[in-house]
Amino acid sequence: MSYQPLASDDPDKQNTYGSLDSTPTQSSIALLADRFRVDDPVADIENPFLDTETAEYWRLVYDNCQYECRHVFNPKLEWSAREEKELIRKLDWKVCLWACVMFFGLQVDRGNLSQAVSDNMLDDLGLDTNDYNYGQSIFLVSFLLAELPSQLLSKAVGPDRWIPTQMVLWSFVAISQCSLTGRGSFFLTRSLLGFLEGGFIPDLVLWLSYFYTSRELPIRLSYFWTTLSLTGIITSLLAFALLHLRGVLGWEGWRWLFLVEGWITLCVGIASFFMMPASAVQTKTWFRPDGWFTEREEAIVVNRVLRDDPSKGDMHNREALSPKRLWEALKDYDLWPLYAIGLFAYVPQTPPKNYLTLTLRSLGFSTFNTNLLTIPADIIHIINLILLTRISEWLNERSLVAIAQPLWTLPCIFALRFWGGVVEDRWGTYAIIVTLLSYPYCHAILVGWCSKNSNNVGTRTVSAALYNMSVQSGNVYASYIYRDDDKPLYRRGNTTLLVINLVSILVFLLTKLYYVWRNKQKERVWNALSEEQQIEYRKTTKLQGSRRLDFRFAH
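Predicted structure:
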């Protein structure tokens, strides 16, 4: 028996697995899939289960936790590169595409406030800029507080059940915004939307991780967040039409906007009950009798994910986290650097984004031209997002690629702070803001990075929520940076953004150094063990996730 050394510089080639002395047995479905071996096996997937002790160790783990896909676990299964490519294409159409549609439903209701205020919503309700900031903060704090409870609930009942329920519930609140009467009702709907939408993103990321490997997930997340910009384009065009309804039935245009877009989300939420299978082996149901995959395809989907990360099967997909596992995940300090990035990285661009429509109106653009002028930034943002994530995959580098985001925003924030033509030169000001908001978005890289370094389903569940909570915490602070007494130039606010931008660059670099240091530290301890001690460690260690000595952090 032999084990691959874990000294590789490529964290994606380092796997965590245990071992026991026994000969594995196979289910009938796994044997059926095994009979369909091909002469051209896929060459770029490392199979840690070829070692019989390792395979049996994980088989016992999967059996003990009643992992829903355990019956198709097959260490000897082989498939061709062509089969895998075709299957990934099917996953993209069936799984990733609908995830993007659901994210569209989220962003429609989460982002339409900026379009509503371009139609004089604040004046109609007797609100001012500070009330707008308070409303944004109430939403973000509610969103933040709901993150972890929502993720824990999703893990207990299954994201395929909880996510559609979330969407239907918040769509009713979104629709009710057409009846806003003033400050109180504005704050109430902001709070309810935050509580009901909180946790949606990590819930959806958890669901996607059931189908994709750690190398594939960031790319799919880049498609996922591309929907953010696409939604901005679509809703800007939709707002251009809906805001023209001002006066119809005595309603302001922004009331029609909330009504129509709330109904769009409701339809997506209802459809999601029928479009989200619990796992790759649970796509057959009364309304989809043939399912999405053949038995062989089911086996390939499951085994390729498990070979990439065996820990993805160490919990049932409807198994709640125990208090002990929750506490272990919360105190996993090795993931804290990623939370620190989430806290700072997205602040510099948030106030200019939130105030984009108000800024364009103050520059003299009409309500309708304002919504159209937001589109160019969204288009360039899509291109930069996909390009940045692809570069990260090609180079297998996270820190030094993701740092492109704060490096992009730095000169733009500097110009907003020190250029004398801000506001006075409206097209020059518009050009700076569009360039700023076209930044290469590193969120997909960070979410995939956090998932990979968790190395455990329980930790992954919590870390996804904690990372998103750190992002929302930064957004809460960001909503108070542009203040009413600082407009229209926001000199004080932009000075603050400049400092945070520099801190963000520093945090990226320190995170890179930290993970390099931690890997070297683990390597020294691991190499000090004899081969027999390493084998015994794999058999007997109670440590899970990234705390294991044979795990290496991606960076």
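Summary: The CA atoms of residues 363 and 424 lie 8 Å apart.
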